Each structure stands twice: as C-alpha cells, then as structure tokens.
Amino acid sequence: MKSLIRYLVNGLPLVAIALVIAFVIYPKFVAPSAKLDGEERSNKIVNAPERRELPQSEEYQVINIHDGDTLTVQGNWGKQKIRLCGIDAPELDQPLGYESRDFARSLVASAGNNIILMPIEKDRYGRTVAEVFVALKDGQEKSLQEELLKSGLANSY
Question: Would you put residue 17 in left (φ > 0), alpha (ψ -120 to 50) or beta?
Fold first, then answer.
C-alpha cells in the first residue's frame, strides 16, 4: 500500500503538468480566436476549403523527346513543352542521359507517338508539368514516369 501511495504522489506533478498543457496551452494552438473581415471567430471547427477539381486530361502528339523528363507535344492548343511530374531523369551530358531519353522515345513510339497528359502546374521556365500516360495499342495505359522509375533511368523528385 505504501508503494502505491508513493507511486501516486511521485506521479502527481506529471499529472498536474499534463492538465496545464491540456487546458491552458493546447487550445491556443488548435483554433485561436481571430477577427476575419470584421467578424469575430470562436474556437469552432472551420469548414475545409472547397475540393479542388482534378485536371482534365487531353491527348497529344509527341513531336520530340529532349531528354528523359522533357518533351514537346502538339495538341489542340498548339505546341508546348512538357516536364514530367515527380521524376528527375539525367540530362544528356550525364551518365544514362541518352539511355533515359531513348527508353522514353521507344515507349512513346510504341503508342504511335500519342500520349495523354494530365497537367499539374507550370514550372519556373513556363513548361507544363504533367502526369504523362502512354496509350498502348492493346488498350492499356502506362505511366511514362512509372516506367522510367522502374527501369532505373529516373529518380523520384
């Protein structure tokens, strides 16, 4: 019985600290009151922002593949440069640069140079960063990024 009492007494400061954190400090970080546009906000749950729509995919004709992660396409909106999203392939002057480019070219050529793009954003050079899919003749689609990663000719970015 003495050891139980000693255990409870020794643990009391920890319990007190936990209660102070729970009731005094924690609420200030969770949902502090703030004035927005003249309105008083309380510590209520705020609704999540509207859900972002997925980008629309379009089919394009590949004109040129510069290296493993950059290509030029022709579509309804004219020519544009595309940067593959999520990967980094070697440049032509780096080891495996030509192999990476040639692998991407062969995969795109097997689909008749047609690809499906899902644009994500624009990069600092004005290129469209996109997910790129190759529509094969047997009806399957393959992710160009995934195939480059599986082959070891690109790194995830």
Answer: alpha
